Amino acid sequence: MSTTKIVYGLYADDDDLMNGVKAFNDKGIAINEVYTPFPVHGLDKALGLKKTRISDAAFLYALYGVSIGATVTWYVMNHDWPQNIGGKPAFDWAHNMPAFVVPMFELMVFCAAHMMSLTFLVRNKMYPGAPAQNPDPRTTDDKFMMEFVTDDVESVKQLLIDTGVEEITVKNVESVTQPLAGNDDKDITVKDA
Known about the structure:
single chain, alpha+beta, 6 helices, rod-shaped
């Protein structure tokens, strides 16, 4: 039987969470995951996470949107149904392009925003029907949680207490399939430690 456990430390404040992350980094204890109800400034840097590539994807999606806009305006106004509208004859697309900047811009924003959202949801496995990955629903409201996978439970618990944790939960690795709330596992509440 494995002695590896999952330890969850629940914080009430993002400043306490950041202090906890720094304390664990100083001790060289690896943090498996951090759950927060909103983005915490500087947390990604404190955890040593790499820069996200969503901005690169957004640029490619925006280029796709501009390309679609340019292709549609060229095809409709210069190839499919050329008309002289408001004194703007359909000579070629380059001469008429300034009139189509607005629809091209709108398609650029539309494609970038929608495709970035879909990429984010699929990449983070948050699509419809995906199982919940959050171990405690309170972290979607007002609590902050750190998750550790460790063999040295006591030192992790002690450092969590030292950094102002509100609640500590220890679970077996094999039993982690459902959210914490409502489970009959070993819960340890620490107040004013």
